[in-house]
Amino acid sequence: MTRAHTLSLLAVLLFWGCHSQSKPGQLSVEEKKKKVEELRKEIFRLQQEIAELEKAIQAEDSTYARKKAIPVGFTVVQPRYFAAFLQFQGNVDNRQVVTLTAKVPAPVTRIYVQEGQTVAAGQLLLEQEAEVLRKNIAEVRTRLELARTLYEKQKKLYEEGIGSEVQYLTAKNNKESLEATLATLEEQLRNTQIRAPFAGKVDAVQVRVGELLAPGTPALRLVSPGQWEVKAEIPESYLYLAQPGKKVDIWVPDLNLSFSAPIAAVSENISPLSRTFTVIVREIPLAYRTQLRPNLIAYVRLPEREIPQALVVPTEAVQFQDTLAYVYVAQGGIARRRKVRVVATRGGDVAIEGVQAGDTVITTGASLLGEGQAILLSSVEGIGF
């Protein structure tokens, strides 16, 4: 805001305080409209009066314009490569995060692991009560050993033509029946054990020894360290930009991690509710995988446009009035308003059209300026990449 603007505002406030006899809430709509028009006329009159006074002062004091100059930061624009990105929020996921549950109802007798422990595929993690099953298995094995002996003898006699076929078939059936019974009991025993389906890390142990574990009740959660991916939902209007193999930037703000990776897959289905499709990135650097956690927020930056020779300024340099965008260019210690068109944006940078290479564009303090305002260039500001 210029000094003239500040004086205008003070004059309006003084005018309002001196001439308003009723509070705005006590006025009718027509009275409010009339009051607004009166104030606008008064502001215009005061601005003209201030401009005439300043002109008269400058005629008598040539240093007056320099005294009211506003210090500003600036950048000298030069053509450079610029890539604009579209950013979409997604999340970190793991394709192998499983919750392991029991298959039979029985109390927990042993827990062999704890949170944070790394386990191998097939490793025994938890056992349930199965003493009766073990006794049945021992009994069946003893009977099966006898049945196999009798079967071998009956088979030998039958092959020599001494024993009857009925005796041979009976011995064979008894052996096979006990073998099937033993296999069933051993499968039931395995169902009382929870083993790791893959190598990974135990993320949670959700039961205690002695607790009754029913089928479907969560017991342990296992996470694979090598199956991380980033998923993001992207509006269907950008389908043409997202193709498998295209490089995107990934940013995980909570861990301050960023990397580039190709898109691994793009979903064929578009959600009828959100009108979005899913983009999946799987090539995550090995050094980052140990830091990731399921459901962390991650941003996917999809390249939208590449400009080999762009004129780029910081976002703060571009001012807006309704739909008009403009910047201030320093010319001989005076700020000159220049209409521009925003071509693309990325982070805190804006590629614009409407300025020339080598122009000194005002950055810091641009919002305080008006056309023709005296300025003092105080610092050069760089542009981020």
How would you characterize the overall build of this protein?
The chain is α+β, with helices and mostly antiparallel strands. It has helices at 3-19, 29-60, 64-67, 131-159, 165-190, 286-289, and strands spanning 70-76, 80-94, 97-101, 106-111, 118-119, 124-128, 193-195, 200-205, 212-213, 218-223, 228-235, 247-252, 257-262, 265-266, 276-281, 297-314, 319-321, 324-331, 334-346, 349-353, 360-362, 375-380. The chain has 4 domains: 3-60, no CATH class; 69-81 and 309-380, conserved putative lor/sdh protein from methanococcus maripaludis s2 fold; 86-96 and 224-306, Beta Barrel (Elongation Factor Tu (Ef-tu), domain 3); 98-222, Beta Barrel (OB fold (Dihydrolipoamide Acetyltransferase, E2P)). The strands form 4 sheets. Strands 2, 11, 12, 13, 14, 15, 16, 17, 18, 19 and 20 form an 11-stranded antiparallel beta sheet that branches. A 4-stranded antiparallel beta sheet has the order 3-10-8-5, with no helix packed on it. It has a 4-stranded antiparallel beta sheet with strand order 7-6-4-9, with no helix packed on it.
Mean pLDDT: 84
Which CATH architecture of the largest domain? Beta Barrel
- Total E-strand runs: 22
Structural class: alpha+beta
Gross morphology: elongated
Beta-strand content bin: 35-45%
Number of domains: 4
Distance between the termini: 31 Å
Q: What letter string, H or E per element, gives the SSE order?
A: HHHEEEEEEHHEEEEEEEEEHEEEEEEE
Give Rg in angstroms: 40 Å
Helix content: 25-40%
Q: Any low-confidence stretches, pLDDT <50, length ≥5?
A: 1-13
For the biggest sheet, the summary is:
11 strands, antiparallel
Instruction: State the helix count.
Output: 6
CATH superfamily of the largest domain: RNA polymerase II/Efflux pump adaptor protein, barrel-sandwich hybrid domain
CATH C-level name of the largest domain: Mainly Beta
CATH topology of the largest domain: OB fold (Dihydrolipoamide Acetyltransferase, E2P)
